[in-house]
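Worked example

This section walks through a single chain of length 308. The input is the sequence exactly as stored; nothing has been trimmed or padded.
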Amino acid sequence: MTKRVAVLSGGISAEREVSLASGKQCAAALREAGYMVIPIEVGPDLAGLIASLQQARVDVVFNALHGRFGEDGCVQGVLDWLAIPYTHSGLRASAMAMDKVTAKLAFQAAGLPVPRHRLVTPEELAAADPMPRPFVVKPPNEGSSVGVSILKLGDNRRAEIATAWRFGSQVMVEEYIPGRELTVGVLEDRALAVTDILADAGAFYDYTSKYGAGGSRHMLPAAVHPDIAEQAKEIALAAHRALGCRGASRCDFRYDDTAGEPGRLVLLEINTQPGLTPTSLLPEQAAHVGIAFPDLVSWMVEQARHGP
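Given that input, the structure is written out below as tokens.
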């Protein structure tokens, strides 16, 4: 019997448009793979979402949501309650990964390299530099580089950033690691490849670089020392396991090779809902190792389950 798959996209986070793009691409690929697809655009009406899922009598939910309420355990908890299998990580791993502070603590406990960081209030950030420059300012609970800024010597935007802060009562301040941006996709117990991400015009890999046409170039496989490539894969798998992730994930790294190779590799974060848009990294890496996009999303559906 053909599986009925509900594809959830949209949501109410700052990443709604990214999610809609992911959902559209996934729905098309799942139809190509032979599934019966029921697209569901998610908004603020949670009761409406539950009613839609129940009326559709779905076998599996393909979770193409991004950001808060989509990949932080909220929707996962609802689907656990309804006993509907879903793709990607469960409630606990999703919540831990989305909370950058909690994730860092788990990574440190597993012996993985992470950057130094502090949590401050917007008022504390406005008053003084929380650590020596350069440093990175980011929300503790957002994805896709939403709200991320880099403050270097001579940059006078600190008070402006603090005053305009709209991501809650805390600000994560993190040491800036010079060098390159690397990423590694994981499918359950397999690290796929290492991609070197080159943002346009020397900018850091921000929201526009990630999702804008021509915003970045992806070098796959990354031109890094073989030991670093292997280390990145090992750390990505270890991070996936440290949080109890399942299905697909993607780890982002900074690689400081400014003094030569092999350099210093630092784990920034893990993404339990990697983007599945035309410019996304995980589908590129899957294709690189011989997994076509319809096969990738089919694998995710067949791996789906509910519960922890």
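What to look for: Residues 224 and 261 are 8 Å apart (CA to CA).
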